[in-house]
Amino acid sequence: MKPKLSILIVSYNTREMTLACLRSVHEQAQSADFEIVLVDNASVDGSAGAVAAAFPQVRLLAETENHGFARANNLAAKVARGDYLLLLNPDTLVLDQALDKLVAFAEQRPEAGIWGGRTLFGDGSLNPTSCWRRPTLWSLFCRAAGLSLLFPRSEVFNPESYGGWRRDTVRHVDIVTGCLFLIRRATWERLGGFSSDFFMYGEETDLCLRARALGCRPAITPDATILHYGGASEKTRAGKVVKLFAAKIELIRRHWPVWQRGAGVFLMVLWALTRHAGYALLARLTPTVQRREEAAAWAEVWRQRRVWRAGYRSGRAAD
């Protein structure tokens, strides 16, 4: 019988976290009407074999190349059978029947089209990255000028993060992130899934903005809460930021008015430059190991500016 919910998980060298995530799903999902489709992106840590041994009921796609997040989820969605598709990161733990609550929320708010929940760090503190507001010229200026860092709780100066909102109320948002991302299969198929141009980061922003253009109003509920450790498959800060910046450049080119795109790219470059210069200065004034590592990471991001300025369509930022 066709399941109601298909849970899609993409793993890459996160063996123990992936196994823990799967255990939490089976412990916390009270409804038996679900399936799990897991794509392993050519992990070298034995993830695929461990999943096959511990969870033979999981539909495992053990790939021989790293497809990235977008393409791997597209592969999983093709073999999934549920009416709903739930994207779930492997570095998460499901809490307090969160998945059942998220599906119930979706059925109460069908107009949203895309649904998400609340995420916590491993220590139980708020992880605010479960949702974002769309980037704008003003939000990028606040990033470049450091206003978002100086006033993190301000919705005016930290607009992409929704300021100090604790994710503790139901709210329509611009973007639900892929760590906990529920969508109807019919909507996913209408949108054509993720754009395969994105390797990692930005794909859910692109999809949510395309969905909003069709009339969807993505929404967050605090009742669906999970732990999300974050960054488990990305080991170097510079590598993560290069991919993130490439994704943001791609989003500017796809979703911003033509007259704003040049200014948007300029602000991205300014953002990288101010962080590079600022952390270099801090490393000189307070030469701790952490400061030196931060300075080195931003120096590498600045060095690779030609790579991320090309966006993802060049394919170079995914290397």
Number of helices: 12
The beta-strand count equals: 12
Overall 3D shape = globular
Query: How large is the radius of gyration?
Result: 19 Å
Structural class: alpha/beta
Tell me what portion of residues adopts beta-strand conformation: 15-25%
Instruction: State the helical fraction.
Output: 40-55%
List unreliable stretches of 5+ residues: 314-319
What are the secondary-structure elements, in order, as H or E?
EHEHEHEEHEEEHHEEEHHEHHHH
- Mean pLDDT, to the nearest integer, reads 94
Main beta-sheet strand count, sense and barrel state: 10 strands, mixed
Termini distance? 41 Å
Task: Describe the structure using short key phrases.
319 residues; alpha/beta; ten-stranded mixed β-sheet; two-stranded antiparallel ribbon; 12 helices; 12 strands; 45% helix; 18% strand; disordered C terminus
Task: Write a compact overview of the structure shown.
With 319 residues, the protein is an alpha/beta fold.
What this model shows, in words?
It is a single chain. With 319 residues, this protein is of the alpha/beta class. Helix content is 45%, strand content 18%. The protein has helices spanning 15-28, 47-54, 68-79, 98-108, 137-145, 147-150, 185-191, 203-213, 237-255, 258-285, 289-303, 305-309; strands at residues 5-11, 34-40, 59-62, 84-88, 92-94, 114-120, 126-127, 131-132, 171-172, 175-176, 180-184, 219-228. Strands 1, 2, 3, 4, 5, 6, 7, 9, 11 and 12 form a ten-stranded mixed beta sheet that branches. Strand 1 (5-11), helix 1 and strand 2 (34-40) form a beta-alpha-beta unit. Helix 9 runs antiparallel to helix 10 (258-285). The chain is globular and about 60 Å long.
